[in-house]
Amino acid sequence: MTAATLPPAAIDPAYNFGYLDEQTKRMIRRAILKAVAIPGYQVPFGSREMPLPYGWGTGGIQVTASVIGGADVLKVIDQGADDTTNAVSIRKFFRRVAGVATTEDTAAATIIQTRHRIPERPLAEGQILVYQVPIPEPLRFLEPRETETRKMHAWAEYGLMHVRLYEDIARYGEIATTYSYPVLVNGRHVMSPSPIPKFDNPKMEMNPALQLFGAGREKRIYAVPPWTRVKSLDFEDHPFTVQRWEEPCGLCGATDSYLDEVVLDDRGAKMFVCSDSHHCEERRAAGHRGPMAGEPPGYVTEGEGTP
Amino acid sequence: MYVAVKGGERAIDAAHAWLAEVRRGDPSVPELSLAQIREQMAIAVHRVMTEGSLADPDLAALAVKQARGDLVEAIFLLRAYRTTLPRFGNAVPFDTGRMAVRRRVSATYKDLPGGQVLGPTFDYTHRLLDFALAAGGVDPPAAPEAPAAVEPMASVAGILDHEGLMEPERADEAGSEPFDLTREPMGFPAGRDQRLQALVRGDEGFVLALGYSTQRGFGGTHPFVGEVRMGEVPVEVEIPELGFAVEIGAVTLTECQMVNQFRGTAETGPRFTRGYGLAFGESERKAMGMALVDRALRAEELGERAIHPAQDEEFVLMHADNVEASGFVQHLKLPHYVDFQADLDLVRRLKAEWEARRATPPAEGLKEAAE
Amino acid sequence: MTAAFSLPDAPANDRARPLLVAERVTKSYGEVVGCRDVSLAIHPGEVLGIVGESGSGKTTLLKVLSARMAPNAGTVSFDAGGRGLADVYAMAEPARRALMRTEWGIVHQDPRDGLRMHVSAGGNVAERLMGTGARSYADMRAEAAAWLGRVELDVGRMDDLPRRFSGGMRQRVQLARNLVTRPRLLFMDEPTGGLDVSVQARLLDLIRELVRDLGIAAIVVTHDIAVVRLLADRLLVMHRGEAVEHGLTDQVLDDPQHPYTQLLVSSVMTA
């Protein structure tokens, strides 16, 4: 089984390459350079009105549009999967306005635009991971005022961030933040990793790939350059931990990937499958089998090879 | 899951085809032309131009048609298109004093130079459904025409200004470019240029409601409508090769000058303060709401206590844009199952722990975990 | 009418350098004067009471002294970290904010201004520790519990929100939150205002004990002579924005010189 890859296509002549005009791309690239120079710092930028709605990836799209070239190979995922509707829509957009080759193969992609996940397969040097970010400010729900949060970042006044963790432990006995789990980047800026599950946080640390974050509606760009320290906030005596599942992926048997719950009926029957659809396919292609791979009752896999 | 997820591309294509079909509606009913929308749904078109930041009635009419009459969606369409337009230059600032006035009312003076002109307004119409319109086919008789005004229509703010009773309009520093919200991110504290732009682009309902809240005591500023005027204003552009400004057309504008009470400070002495509203086309409700909110947002600058929502610059300006608001509210429809899974896992575990604790005899001082 | 005061003498038993010095501070709002030409100094471990009726400018003065409102004229200096007096308004803002989190404490009249009402009592106290880099949950919790105990609160309620506490209890949480970083100077604005008389008396006793035991200097603003009689070593009397009298508490209360102070002390005046 090979991952769906499409060769370069013709560009819609009505639009500039990458949709944005060259001036705008230069402005965004300057913001990206600044973001790379100050890891974790949120750089304000002149976000443009895009033909997709705010909150649906306009920040990520503008970042991708500014760094993409004709020779790039683009992968777009949402919730870890290439075929979720919004990922399909964004991929179609870039085929139309940039004509680039697209792929579902994580290793083959030069740019991966994502919403809510980091692929399971480790990234390599030279790859760029572009995150779509709804709320870039990690302090926003503790302090709603931009004027105040900017001061807190400027002077590294992050005590309040730990108050949130303290309250969790006091109330639940553990840190109850499961996604958008705040990180300290390069020992200086506290950053929101976009709402990826905290399971993915350790993948950000010392990652060989360039990680770019775009928030279109909030008009911020930030970055984690390759090989940068990214530490999830915690207490010495309540260290950061990630989610674990009792059972493996029902399809590929993976025990170390992030799993989605699939409800099989309305009486509580469920199975777990890899959220990273390409990772799961690759494992099955390599012969791995999960306990449910032999087709659960009433469960249809469309377009998938059956064992 | 794979059934739902795979085939996303086909689902999108099918949905778009279906949308096109319902947009057209019953094919036995004649299709609307852009000219019909532009002429007969004019105020919808004006709102789309105002909040879409683009003065083009035909494109706005197209957006209204394409959006099936959903004006926020139409504003979004127009804005997205606007992004792709090259910018040739800036117009010379409008002089609304040169407006070819079709409507002008003042609530502060019984009569004033140029007089009161009601114009084509809904004011004083009885809101009775007109079934003659339902029947259609009858063109209204021509409205009577007044002789052209002889006096120029002095602005009310200017009249007060002459007496030193109105704060002067502060001119921008020479040569400074006005803030451009379509090119630069919002910053705080916002200058008045940034604030006025955000309010013009802001959702009419939101701005109206905030303005209304100031009238009900949530940041009251004792407003009087100094003047509302509507009409055509020439657009001039400075051509570098010529060295002077050339008129390239005209736009219809509605302007509201709100006169507000203010005691004054030791330095300035007592005088009135301004609130300003401006919109494309006939958008009186928007211009008035905007003028109220503009004034309310000056609380800090004027040394007033700023405690109400309409006086809170960051709250108002960051939440006024309906394209942003609509996108972000509606993005909740996108899949969130990765994050939901993370919470589901946690809640299940906490619940299991809670049940285990309940099963064992309570320890000293143990309390309910959550509120 | 009044010129600047010469700086009042420190108590004879304390020869240390002044902790905070205000020189001829004036703050006006438009035409309204908040305080005019006030000078004062406070030394380590000393409690200064600022009394006057409402509108006398005492709260304005406290805000100016605690770096929360820049004066129109005059200076406020603090001996930060024992490195000598430095103008608090000339400091970089982060240094000033750090001061407020560490060497200073501010007890507001309304605890809602000084506490995070949606954060537990323990979290409120621990926040100042986290703000100074503490990262052990157990240690912080123990320390927060110790301070809540010290202000005589039921430690079993440390995970409750301040919202569920009475006014007197909230004031105690506020005290603990400020004391946990062992400040050198505490600013208090009507700390017992709005409380029942019996609750007031117990809280005042507690404040007096804590300030004495910990050797903290304090500036207490109040309209209530009884409060300063109990707490303050020295008094500054404010009237219409000006400091009309100052001196040792007993001296001022037993032998008031200024007619306004005489009126105030004779208990004819109530705020």
Question: What does this protein structure show overall?
Answer:
The complex is a heterotrimer of chains A (307), B (371) and C (271). In chain A, 25% of the residues lie in helices and 17% in strands. Chain A is of the alpha/beta class and 307 residues long. In chain A, the strands form 3 sheets. An 8-stranded mixed β-sheet of chain A has the order 1-4-3-5-6-9-10-2. A 3-stranded antiparallel β-sheet of chain A has the order 8-7-11. In chain A, strands 12-13 form a two-stranded antiparallel ribbon. In chain A, strand 7 (183-185) and strand 8 (189-191) form a beta hairpin. In chain A, helix 1 packs across helix 2. Residues 296-307 of chain A have low confidence and may be disordered. Helix content of chain B is 40%, strand content 13%. The model of chain B is unreliable at 1-5 and 365-371 (pLDDT under 50). In chain B, strands 1-2-3-4 form a 4-stranded antiparallel β-sheet. The longest helix of chain C is centred in the C-terminal third of the chain and has 18 residues, at 197-214. In chain C, 36% of the residues lie in helices and 23% in strands. The radius of gyration of chain C is 18 Å and the shape is globular. At the A-C interface, helix 5 of A face helix 2, helix 4 and helix 5 of C.
* Low-pLDDT ranges of chain A: 296-307
DSSP E strands of chain B, number: 4
Q: How many helix segments of chain B? A: 14
Supply Rg of chain B: 27 Å
Portion of residues in beta strands of chain A equals 15-25%
Number of domain modules of chain B: 3
Strand-pairing-aware structural class of chain A: alpha/beta
- Using the alpha-carbon principal axes, give the shape of chain B: globular
Secondary structure elements and pairings:
The complex is a heterotrimer of chains A (307), B (371) and C (271).
Chain A: E1 5-6, H1 22-37, E2 43-44, H2 58-67, E3 73-78, H3 85-98, E4 101-103, E5 111-115, E6 128-132, H4 146-154, H5 159-172, E7 183-185, E8 189-191, H6 201-204, E9 210-215, E10 220-224, E11 230-232, E12 259-263, E13 270-274, H7 277-285
Helix pairs in contact in A: 1-2
Chain B: H1 2-5, H2 8-24, H3 34-40, H4 42-52, H5 57-66, H6 71-83, E1 100-105, H7 131-135, H8 156-162, H9 192-201, H10 204-215, E2 223-239, E3 244-260, E4 273-280, H11 284-296, H12 313-319, H13 322-330, H14 337-359
Antiparallel strand pairs in B: 1-2, 2-3, 3-4
Helix pairs in contact in B: 3-5, 4-5, 4-6, 5-6, 9-11, 10-11
Chain C: E1 20-29, E2 32-42, E3 47-51, H1 58-65, E4 73-78, E5 86-87, H2 93-101, E6 104-107, H3 111-114, H4 121-131, H5 137-150, H6 167-179, E7 185-189, H7 197-214, E8 217-222, H8 225-231, E9 234-239, E10 242-248, H9 249-254, H10 259-265
Parallel strand pairs in C: 3-8, 3-9, 6-7, 7-8
Antiparallel strand pairs in C: 1-2, 1-4, 4-5, 9-10
Helix pairs in contact in C: 4-5, 4-6, 5-6, 6-7
